[in-house]
């Protein structure tokens, strides 16, 4: 399946945790009652991954049947794309560059500190998410931007591989304030049954 | 909440116990809203003092804390009641329904419902809804799909049944990838509609179009590609019937070149497919399904010299990414080597 689930723009300052500025989701393939939890988990994953990616670098992290592509710019602006394994990695990372360039051009850098009206007014994410569901659309884009060096993308097979020594995903989930109790419960059951809906 | 297993037997005749009330709530929602779309178990941290049944915009949810006790209650009682004893069939219907919603993999309970329907104690509409709800939560539930197929052969069919089933299949296959059961069901529905209504070129063409869009977005879905093969095979088996309606066939397939015979039309289709398949193989790395499908197309048509041209294209790094020293491309090279070997075997 070639599918994009979410696109999120975050900003990481020198101190403090990354702030989610704007995100777009396509959750149509999830059940009605799961959508809010899945969305919370995508935002949560985006945050913990950007925290653990060094500036001016790219990572692709596999987790279950999902693949998170992360790009952190030198100026602290980050973009996280959640897709499936079959979405071509090269296209995903080109898309990240394009989304961030577009965002930086439309929203002033002084407004990147936290989610605010200016970020909310940026409407490009939904359009990109819908358009690039078809990776052929991105094909033309890939051919123009040859500077993307694929060998520099760091690949990880699980989120655990990205975590620092001594950190556990379960602990991060239970400590997180961004996740509701229902979502934590959802995470626990999904982990237990190892069903299709395990995300995060 | 915890109960001792022996409690469930004792409770069976208490119409006011917690489980009975929850079942009644659930049944009331299903009766009130026949257009329910989805069912799911909703995770909540603790039981609040209200009904655990949630009904939001045609979606039915049950809070997780009561699932175990309600299921055990229904399960125990479904096996205790005799479907042939008329006085009990209403209760039996009630328990099997909830037990199946919570755990649809028990074929015996589906069969109990079949017996009720076969004996005219129950009409089938409710089972269409139950199986639909089950599938919304577990899109690969083969028991629910087989129950549906049985129902479709038993009850008098709604004129819209083909559309209903096909759109159900659409939902199931997009909900979970490589959903073999959903595609098998689709094949069955297609074949069944032909059996009842005869060969219909419009239905064939619309299915072929849908599968075209699907396979483009789900390159590694073996079942989806297999359905496409099924449709092409079906076209070949009905060449005679298509021959009699060449005007319609040309129109439906968008053929403007004035192809004279249906077998020519079939060859054109195969060639178009080969071209599309080549584009996909060249632009997306390492999807084995594409190679399988290619070999089917070659086998169905005839292999000519252009196949070696295709292999050359795959090897040429200027036109594709095949030769860069990346792991995925090594897999692609393996598929290519396999294909080359198959080709030489096949041509002998």
Oligomer: heterodimer
What average pLDDT do the residues of chain B reach?
A: 85
**At CATH's second level, what is the architecture of chain A?**
2-Layer Sandwich
- Percentage of residues in helical conformation of chain B: 55-70%
Class of chain A in CATH?
Alpha Beta
Main location (chain A): membrane
GO cellular component, one term (chain A): cytoplasmic vesicle membrane
InterPro entries (chain A): Longin-like_dom_sf, Longin_dom, R-SNARE_YKT6, V_SNARE_CC
Protein name (chain A): EOG090X0E6P
Summarize the structure in words.
Chain B: GO terms for molecular function: protein prenyltransferase activity. Chain A has 200 residues and is α+β, with helices and mostly antiparallel strands. Chain A has a single domain, classed as Longin domain (Beta-Lactamase), CATH 3.30.450.50. Helix content of chain A is 39%, strand content 20%. Chain A has helices at 35-51, 89-106, 117-121, 124-131, 135-144, 169-175, 181-193; strands at residues 4-11, 19-25, 57-63, 66-72, 77-84, 154-156. Chain A has a six-stranded mixed β-sheet, sandwiched between helices. The longest helix of chain A is centred in the middle third of the chain and has 18 residues, at 89-106. Chain A is globular and about 45 Å long. Residues 195-200 of chain A have low confidence and may be disordered. With 348 residues, chain B is mainly alpha-helical. Chain B has a domain at 1-156. In chain B, a hairpin with a 2-residue loop joins strand 2 and strand 3. The longest helix of chain B has 22 residues, at 262-283. Classes of the chains: A alpha+beta (200), B mainly alpha (348).
């Amino acid at each position: 399946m070639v599918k994009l689930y979410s696109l999120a723009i975050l900003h990481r300052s020198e101190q403090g945790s990354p702030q989610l500025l704007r995100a777009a989701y396509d959750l149509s393939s999830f059940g009605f009652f799961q959508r809010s939890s899945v969305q919370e988990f995508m935002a949560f994953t985006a945050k913990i991954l950007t925290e653990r990616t060094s500036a001016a670098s790219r990572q692709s992290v596999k987790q279950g049947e999902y693949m998170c592509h992360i790009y952190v710019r030198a100026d602290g602006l980050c973009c996280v794309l959640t897709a499936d394994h079959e979405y071509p990695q090269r296209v995903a990372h080109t898309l990240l560059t394009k989304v961030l360039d577009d965002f930086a051009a439309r929203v002033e850098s002084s407004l990147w500190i936290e989610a605010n009206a200016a970020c909310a007014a940026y409407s490009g994410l939904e359009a990109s998410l819908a358009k690039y569901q078809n990776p052929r659309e991105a094909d033309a884009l890939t051919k123009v931007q040859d500077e993307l060096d694929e060998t520099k993308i760091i690949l990880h097979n699980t989120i655990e591989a990205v975590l620092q020594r001594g950190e556990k995903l379960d602990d991060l989930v239970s400590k997180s304030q961004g996740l509701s109790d229902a979502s934590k419960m959802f995470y626990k059951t999904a982990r237990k049954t190892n069903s299709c809906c395990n995300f995060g | 909440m915890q109960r001792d297993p022996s409690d469930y037997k004792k409770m069976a005749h208490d119409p006011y116990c917690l489980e009975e009330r929850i079942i009644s709530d659930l049944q009331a929602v299903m009766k009130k809203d026949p257009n329910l779309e989805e069912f799911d178990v909703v995770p909540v941290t603790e039981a609040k003092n209200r009904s655990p049944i949630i009904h939001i915009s045609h979606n039915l949810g049950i809070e997780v804390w009561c699932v175990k006790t309600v299921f055990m209650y229904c399960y125990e009682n479904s096996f205790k009641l005799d479907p042939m004893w008329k006085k009990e069939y209403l209760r039996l219907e009630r328990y099997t329904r909830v037990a199946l919603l919570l755990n649809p993999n028990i074929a015996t309970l589906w069969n109990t419902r079949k017996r009720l329907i076969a004996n005219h104690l129950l009409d089938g509409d409710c089972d269409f809804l139950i199986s639909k709800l089950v599938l919304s939560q577990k899109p690969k539930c083969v028991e629910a799909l087989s129950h549906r197929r049985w129902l479709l052969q038993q009850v008098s069919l709604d004129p819209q049944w083909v559309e209903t089933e096909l759109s159900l299949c659409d939902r199931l296959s997009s909900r979970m990838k490589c959903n073999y059961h959903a595609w098998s069901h689709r094949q069955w529905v297609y074949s069944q509609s032909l059996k009842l209504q005869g060969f219909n070129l419009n239905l064939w063409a619309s299915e072929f179009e849908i599968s075209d869009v699907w396979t483009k977005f789900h390159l590694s879905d073996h079942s989806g590609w297999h359905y496409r093969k099924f449709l092409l095979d079906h076209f070949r088996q009905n060449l005679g019937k298509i021959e009699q309606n060449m005007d319609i066939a040309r129109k439906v397939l968008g053929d403007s070149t004035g192809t004279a015979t249906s077998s020519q039309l079939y060859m054109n289709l195969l060639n178009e497919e080969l071209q599309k398949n080549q584009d996909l193989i060249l632009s997306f790395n390492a999807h084995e399904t594409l190679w399988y499908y290619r070999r089917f197309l070659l086998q169905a048509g005839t292999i000519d010299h252009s196949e070696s041209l295709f292999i050359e294209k795959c090897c040429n790094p200027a036109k594709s990414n095949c030769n860069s020293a990346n792991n995925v491309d090594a897999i692609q090279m393996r598929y290519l080597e396999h294909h080359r070997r198959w080709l030489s075997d096949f041509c002998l």
